[in-house]
Specification:
By secondary structure, this protein is mainly β. Helices cover about 10% and strands about 35% of the residues. The protein starts with a helix and ends with a strand. It has a single domain, classed as Immunoglobulin-like (Sandwich). The strands form two sheets. Strands 3, 4, 6, 8 and 9 form a five-stranded antiparallel beta sheet that branches. Strands 1-2-7-5 form a four-stranded antiparallel beta sheet, with no helix packed on it. It is built from one helix and nine strands; from the N terminus they run αβββββββββ. It has one helix at about 1-15; strands at about 30-35, 45-55, 65-70, 75-80, 80, 90-95, 100-110, 120-130, 135-140.
């Protein structure tokens, strides 16, 4: 079962590159930096910083951004919020006034999605999706 879950989570990585036709180079990934959450390990809450390069905002484009937390079985656990806006990072269109790019910070209170229950101790994956490009890191909750 665990092998299947990892295969499903990894499928998004494979599918992102599958759109290029044979003989054509895939466009380079955008300049995105998903940084390590802090503190790590954490209990009960954590902050997840990330930055988006200026080319993502060229010609007034507003990239669609999602950030989700998964357990090791690839089950959705949480959708952190964007600090400063309070909006859940689920297909959120972000703007940036700086031609070089912008830094953002997400916050997760350590609770399971749509409950008041705290997530169990263990390893979790957080995945940032920017216009279909996926970036993943891991974090640890210690009680």
């Amino acid at each position: 079962m665990k092998l299947l879950a990892w295969a499903v989570l990894g499928l998004g990585l494979w599918a992102a590159g599958a759109g290029a036709a044979w003989g054509q180079a895939a466009p380079p990934p955008p300049t995105v930096e998903l940084k390590q959450n802090y503190p790590n390990p954490f209990n009960p809450a954590t902050t997840i910083p990330f930055s988006l390069g200026g080319e993502l905002f060229a010609n007034g484009h507003r990239p669609k951004v999602s950030l989700k937390v998964y357990n090791v079985l690839a089950q959705l656990v949480a959708v952190p919020i964007l600090q400063g806006s309070g909006a859940a990072l689920d297909e959120l269109e972000l703007g940036c006034g700086n031609p070089v790019g912008c830094d953002y910070t997400a916050y997760w209170d350590g609770k399971v999605l749509n409950t008041d229950r705290e997530a169990a101790s263990g390893v979790y994956l957080y995945q940032l999706v920017v216009d279909g490009w996926r970036f993943t890191k891991k974090m640890i909750i210690v009680k």
